Structures are given as structure tokens and as C-alpha cells.
Amino acid sequence: MEQYRCNSCGEKYSVTATRWRCDCGGMLDLVKDIPKIDVAAWNHFPNSLWRYVETMPFLKDSKTWESVTMGEGQSPIIVLDPLDPTTYVKVDYVMPTLSFKDRGAAVLMTKAKELGVSKVIADSSGNAGTSIAAYAARCNISCDIYLSANTSPKKIAQVKAHGATIKEIEGTREDIAAAAQKAIQEETVFYASHVYNPYFYEGTKTYAYEIFEQLKGVPDSLIIPVGNGTLLLGAYYGFKELLENRLIDKMPKLIAIQAANCAPLVTAFESGEITPAPVVNQGTLAEGIAIAAPARGKQILEAVRKTNGTFISIEEDEIHSARAKLAYLGFYVEITSAVNYAGYLKYKKAPEETIVIPLCGAGIKS
Ligand SMILES: *Cc1c(COP(=O)(O)O)cnc(C)c1O
Ligand SMILES: [Zn+2]
In what residue span(s) does the Tryptophan synthase beta chain-like PALP domain sit (predicted)? Predict the structure, then answer.
């Protein structure tokens, strides 16, 4: 049986609907057996991220996901420019709510349904809230989403459309999280947090499984945008499981991208810190990654260092031009997602290096 373990003090807890952090304040990780990956079994499942359900910590033969799934996952992987055949984009905005967050939300809300919860609360800069709201609707679970009044209006409209109650909070992204956490304590409900709840990463790890299948192996490097690190850590865990099962023989290098105006992890990486110091968000167009105090910062830095990866920071003027260039190549992404391509343009790729850039959110969102 899987358990939670505190990343700071090592304390263990059983997985319940209301446990979301350690009594010491530390972040919880899942302790579970290393999944035995049976590649041949994948074809017994529909063509979605649920191909990999047997690698996720659900009760054996649990079918809860069948009533939750909206077909998320298995996004296309495409050579961006035929002149550079080893650079791919993974079109992760091809998802039910138009962002990669559906990977995590589908799995997290399946777990919530399995635990029998009737209400969830989440806080978000936009896309995670949209995704949790959609899957909560799918599960017939009521849902409050805490977000900033400055969130893109189209994202707020999306959340509302799914019937979630919106709680608009004045203040920083951290103030919004604090308001949600206060409500969690007062109402003792399930915290459907993409940052805190480890089940979210069981969903985002499928990003790695899919790349492994689509490229028939492991790429040399992955460009990954980082705010709270849910895609970065998910990709890291996914490739680690493939490595532990000897399906691949190395980890891809993680090239993490932040906006220069809100880059606590870049600063920590460059000065050799183990844990990032919080920064003040100077304001960035990349609203989806503007996280001044990433709660899993220590784990993100560790993952990047372990893969021999690096960090790149992007200036504001580079964001718009990257978005325009991508659109001229056919791919229209939301502003935050242009940062990924800007990071790629700054990265000094070797000619034969295989690299995957995620297109995380659809252009009509912002
Ligand atoms: C959530 C999100 C990110 C960043 O993900 P983190 O988990 O915060 O690192 C990047 N781009 C888009 C479009 C997102 O929705
Ligand atoms: Zn602890």
C-alpha cells in the first residue's frame, strides 16, 4: 500500500482525503513500490494516458478512471522544422481543457473520487484551476477555485463554465495559496493542489511514458518551463521509472526555463543553493510560471542537477517574439508557453541532440 512521506523530516502518513502536508509543514511525496512496467499490457487500454494506469498507485484493477477520463494524453509529437529533424514539439495543448494540466488533474481527481470526497478546493494561476474544475464536474464533486482577479479572463470563464465556485483573492500568488489552505483547514475538505498532492505527478509522469513510446527511446534533452515544477518533476519521475525498469539506459537532461522577472530557481541554481530563496515577482507576461516561492523548489533543483541539466531565464521581449515565430511555424500557444520556445532558441543545442519542447497551453487562452 502506498503512503505519504514528508520530504523534510521523513514522517509517514497513510493516504487520506484530508492529509496534504506534514505536521512539520513539509511537502509529502508518495512512497510506493517501483512499478513493474509491462509494455505489452499497454495496448489493452484506450489510447490515452490511461495506457499506463498499471504504473499508477491505484487499487489493482480499479476502474474508477473509466468514468473520469475525457481521453487526455497521447498528444502528438512533431518535428518542428524539417531542417532540424531532431527537435520535436509535443503538442500538449491538445487536451480536454487545452493545457497539460489535464494529465495531473485526471489522475488526481480519479484518486479523489476513489477516496469518496464530495468537495475539493484548489488554487491556481489559471490552467490548473480550469483543469481541476473540469474533472471535478466530470466526477460530480463540488469545487472551489481560488485565483487572482488578474487571471486571464478567458481562463476565468473556462473555470466558471464547469460550475466551479470562483474565489477571487487580492494579492500575490502566495496569498492566494494561503487563502485556499485556510479554507481547507476550516472546511476539512480535499486539497486538489497540483503543487502539494503527489497524485498530480502520477499524471504528469505520463509525459515521459508517451515520449518514450513516440520516439522509441529516450531523447537527449527536454525543455521544460518551471513555475511550481509539476511537469518537470512528473517528467523526471516518469523517466526514472523507465530507467529503473531498464527500458532506457540514461535520463534526459532537464533544461528548465523561467521568466527572468520571476526566477527564484535560476538564481538558486546559479549560486549553488539547495533550496531557493523566495523572490518578489517583478511582473511577467508568463503568468502561468510566475511562482516566487516554489514549494517543491528543493526537489526541482535536485532533479535538474541529477540529470546534468541547466536553467535558462527569459526576458520579457523574448516572449512575444518567440510566440510569433512559433505561430508562423503553425503552432499557436498561450503567452506563457512561448517561454518554452524562447528557452529553446537560447539553448545551444548540439547538431545531433534530440530535444523535446512542450507546447503547454493553447493560444486562445491568453
Ligand atoms: C502550469 C503551466 C506551466 C508551468 O507548470 P508548473 O507546474 O507551474 O511548473 C507552464 N505553462 C503552462 C501553459 C501552464 O499551464
Ligand atoms: Zn515533516
Answer: 68-361
How far is residue 340's CA from residue 305's CA, in Å, rounded to a whole number? 19
Q: Is-contact 303 334, C-beta < 8 A?
A: no
pLDDT tens by residue, the chain, 366 residues: 799 999 999 999 999 999 999 999 999 999 998 899 999 999 999 999 999 999 999 988 899 999 999 999 999 999 999 999 999 999 999 999 999 999 999 999 999 999 999 999 999 989 999 999 999 999 999 999 999 988 889 999 999 999 999 999 999 999 999 999 999 999 999 999 999 999 999 999 999 999 999 999 999 999 999 999 999 999 999 999 999 999 999 999 999 999 999 999 999 999 999 999 999 999 999 999 999 999 999 999 999 999 999 999 999 999 999 999 999 999 999 999 999 999 999 999 999 999 999 999 999 998
Q: What is the pTM of this model?
A: 0.97
Closest ligand to the CA of 126: 1
For each of the domains in the chain, give its residue range(s) and CATH number, in order of start.
1-31 (no CATH), 77-96+199-365 (3.40.50.1100)
Cα 287 to middle of ligand 1, angstroms: 9
Nearest CA to ligand 1 atom 15: 127
- For strands 28-31 and 3-6, give the pairing: antiparallel
- Ordered DSSP codes for 46-109: -SSGGGGGGGSSS-TT--GGGGT--S-----EEES-TTSTTEEEE-TT-STTSBTHHHHHHHHH
Residue 28 CA to ligand 2 center (angstroms) comes to: 8
Q: Which of 24, 3, 6, 5 is nearest to 14 (CA)?
A: 3
Of the bound ligands, which one is closest to the alpha carbon of residue 125? Answer: 1
